[in-house]
């Protein structure tokens, strides 16, 4: 397969890129910082410098041409303010979807977040930091924009709190799971399995668990 990863120098994304390239898939990684090219090259990934807050649909679509799938793994990051929750976590995910449709790439895995249900319908959860509320709203808005598109086969993955603990290859993956954490290694492994075994229209939450990744993905309803 040829896969394009948006936010390719991120901590989940680098793990994902290495998993894909080590099994022989062709991987292109979108990064905004040219200094990140060398790291991607050392992982066997073709770096493409594109700032997803500046790029046009046509520029992104040109990179996606001929790909089998795209993964949105970018994010404004914990230090970003409210504005970049919207320009990255929402708008860049939408841009990637627009570009995938333009390029005729159907398979799209959107890395969202557990907790977005708390802001559904414009709700504001009590006692939640306003930047985090903006983050959840941006993630939910991205889901709502991307999921209904008939030109894409979208799977929305909502991980719990991400950790850098070593992966176990075992997860809990379901429409709703109890809050928890999950190693980034295991998030990357689940994304690979979702690219191999797409579940169009599925929205699934992910935390650490006892089920083998491939079995957990195969069991998605
Ligand atoms: N942290 C958590 O506990 C948690 C929980 C659930 C879901 N998530 C979501 O999981 C995903 C992956 O998380 P992570 O920890 O791997 O994220 P990360 O390490 O912060 O990586 C995010 C990547 O997005 C890139 N990015 C930001 N703005 C960009 C732009 N304008 N154009 C291109 N790339 C851009 C960043 O590049 P730069 O280095 O250039 O900034 C960075 O490499 C994110 O969507 C995050 O919101 C996180």
Protein architecture, described:
By secondary structure, the chain is α/β, with parallel strands linked by helices. The protein has one domain: 3-Layer(aba) Sandwich (Rossmann fold). The protein is 38% helix and 23% strand. It has seven helices and eleven strands. The chain has helices spanning 11-22, 37-42, 57-64, 82-103, 130-146, 184-196, 213-218; strands at 2-6, 26-31, 46-49, 69-72, 107-111, 153-159, 161-163, 170-174, 181-183, 203-208, 211-212. Strands 3-2-1-4-5-6-10-8-11 form a nine-stranded mixed beta sheet, sandwiched between helices. A two-stranded parallel sheet has the order 7-9. Strand 1, helix 1 (11-22) and strand 2 form a beta-alpha-beta unit. Helix 1 (11-22) crosses helix 6 (184-196) and helix 4 (82-103) runs parallel beside helix 5 (130-146). The longest helix has 22 residues, at 82-103. The radius of gyration is 16 Å and the shape is globular. The relative contact order is 0.14. Bound molecules: NADP nicotinamide-adenine-dinucleotide phosphate. NADP nicotinamide-adenine-dinucleotide phosphate binds next to helix 1, helix 4 and strand 7.
């Amino acid at each position: 397969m040829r896969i394009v990863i948006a936010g390719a120098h991120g901590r989940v994304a680098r793990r994902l890129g290495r998993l894909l390239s080590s099994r022989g898939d062709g991987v292109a990684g979108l990064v905004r910082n040219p200094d990140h090219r060398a790291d991607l090259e050392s992982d066997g990934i073709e770096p493409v410098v594109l700032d997803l807050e500046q790029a046009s649909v046509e520029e992104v679509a040109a990179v996606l041409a001929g790909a089998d799938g795209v993964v949105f793994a970018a994010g404004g990051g914990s230090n970003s303010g409210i504005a970049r929750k919207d320009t990255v976590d929402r708008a860049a995910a939408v841009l990637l979807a627009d570009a995938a449709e333009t390029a005729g790439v159907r398979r799209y895995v959107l890395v969202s977040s557990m907790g977005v249900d708390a802001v559904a319908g414009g709700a504001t959860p009590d006692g939640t930091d306003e930047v985090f509320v903006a983050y959840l709203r941006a993630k939910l808005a991205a889901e709502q924009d991307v999921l209904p598109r008939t030109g894409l086969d979208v799977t929305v993955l909502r991980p719990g709190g991400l950790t850098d603990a070593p992966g176990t290859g075992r997860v809990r993956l379901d429409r709703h799971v109890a809050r928890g954490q999950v190693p980034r290694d295991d998030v990357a492994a689940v994304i690979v399995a979702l690219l191999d075994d797409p579940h169009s229209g599925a929205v699934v939450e992910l935390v650490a668990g006892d089920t083998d990744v491939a079995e957990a993905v195969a069991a998605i309803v």
